[in-house]
Specification:
The two termini are 32 Å apart. The protein has a single domain, classed as Penicillin V Acylase, Chain A. The chain is built from 5 helices and 16 strands. Strands 1, 2, 10, 11, 12, 13 and 14 form a 7-stranded antiparallel beta sheet that branches. A 7-stranded antiparallel beta sheet has the order 3-4-5-6-7-8-9, covered by helices on one side. A two-stranded antiparallel ribbon has the order 15-16. It has 266 residues and is of the alpha+beta class.
């Protein structure tokens, strides 16, 4: 399971703010954010087993984030199907979120294991679901949204029911709303939450930051798209409960991968 929180057109200065945890097997090799493609310039974490990504951003300000979707029987993924992370990377090759969403919606669901795929920019945001081979898509309204391995904002998911109000309350604070980039430590603290509710559907823990032996929260990301198109990117190369976020690569509108720069906290 993974968690992706998005504030879409909530803050005047930042139409897209994303906070995300990646949960994965600890022995699956991956790299921190790097340049994944040149035309357009794409930056994202790289899954070395599939050569794909779980979360990335391109020079046009399009963000794509992939979350594996739970199945009715909680069975393993079919290794013969195409990597879901490759579809996430394909979406990032589009110039805008609408064309990326159309591309994803046109894919044959049977070619992939179940997934939830968010694509977002300052102009539009969508979540595409692959539910057992059936593709469906939802357009997000402006506001705060939370996505896990179920439908977006599905309060039957314990981690959504516990965490939605906390993220929404943070977004409503005047100081955070004025400067979410400068107050990003507040987002980082929410991602580090260990409070566990068992998922009654599976009997498994559902904390945002998970530690389950050979599986758990591997990394975390914060992404900010400013009103002028500037992209700020921060990455924790381990569980956010014990790993500091550091500035990460981010593509600029000219197509270059800008060097990580420090942004003062307030």
């Amino acid at each position: 399971m993974c968690t992706l929180a998005i504030y879409y057109r909530v803050f005047p200065g930042y139409p897209v703010v994303i906070a995300a945890n990646r949960d994965e097997y600890l022995d699956r090799p991956a790299t921190p954010p790097a340049v994944l493609d040149e035309r357009p310039r794409i930056v994202g974490g790289k899954d070395l087993r599939a050569g794909s990504t779980w979360l990335g951003v391109n020079q046009h300000g399009v963000i794509a984030g992939l979350l594996n979707r739970r199945t009715a029987d909680y069975g393993p993924a079919d290794p013969k199907l195409r990597s879901r992370g490759l579809l996430c990377l394909d979406a990032l090759r589009r110039r805008d979120a609408r064309s990326a969403a159309r591309f994803v919606a046109a894919q044959p669901g049977a070619a992939y294991n179940p997934f939830n795929l968010l694509v977002a920019s300052a102009e539009a945001a969508f979540v595409t679901y692959n539910r057992g081979g059936e593709i469906d898509q939802a357009k997000l309204r402006p506001g705060f949204h939370l996505l896990t391995n179920a439908d977006v904002d599905d309060f039957e998911c314990p981690r959504i029911s516990r965490s939605f109000g906390r993220f929404a309350e943070l977004g409503a604070r005047p100081g955070f709303a004025r400067d979410p980039l400068g107050r990003r430590d507040d987002l980082a603290r929410l991602l580090a939450d260990h409070a566990t509710q068992l998922d009654t559907r599976s009997g498994r823990p559902n904390a945002l930051c998970m530690h389950l032996g050979d599986y758990g929260t591997r990394s975390a990301s914060l992404l900010f798209i400013a009103r002028d198109g500037a992209i700020s990117h921060f990455f924790a190369a381990g569980p956010p409960c014990r790993t500091a976020f550091a500035p990460a690569l981010a593509p600029d509108p000219a197509g270059e991968a800008s060097r990580p720069t420090s942004t003062p906290q307030r």
